[in-house]
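We emphasize that the prediction below concerns an isolated chain of 202 residues; any contacts that depend on oligomerization or on bound cofactors are therefore not represented. The input was used exactly as deposited, without trimming of termini.
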Amino acid sequence: MTSFAIHPEKLKDTIAQVLGDMAREVRVALGEVTVVVPSARYLEAMQALRDAPGCRFEQLMDLCGMDYSTYGDREPEGLRYGVVSHLLSVSLNQRVRIKVFCPDDDFPVVASVAEIWNSAAWFEREAFDLFGIVFDGHNDLRRILTDYGFIGHPFRKDFPLSGHVEMRYDADQRRVVYEPVSIEPRENTPRIIREDKYGGLH
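Result of the prediction step, given as a token string:
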């Protein structure tokens, strides 16, 4: 095992060479390498990142869904949903971020990487539950944080802050019941206090 991290620019070049046309973009920002791959080559690219000698990303540290609909730098016709993964190579002491976009906003689907890294299984269930992203090939894709009867996906930007229904335990019926939300929506504006010379700044 090496005790030093590979320089980001060198890692970027290695990954670009390994992935070739499997990568839409390989860039370095703030000392970190980010790779954007097309959904059609996502599974192939992830397998290469795990197995290629210069990569050897043995561990998937994180995988999350994203809703880019309100991002300021998003192109007007850009894809809405994406999946972001963080990979770690323990043997080479290096990290990389992978982004893939779902080609269909109405039914967002990408391949599951749970067969490559089994740690992806619960991460993908979470992204399915909260964003509605379907992971093709996942062998147990069901909700993991919300209730089985939950309607919608609460991390989508257009999901109402108070939700659609609320549930409570009804002692008379001796079961959980679902009812329309009775909370009036409201918008809180935080009070901001600015100091002219905060932290020595003028």
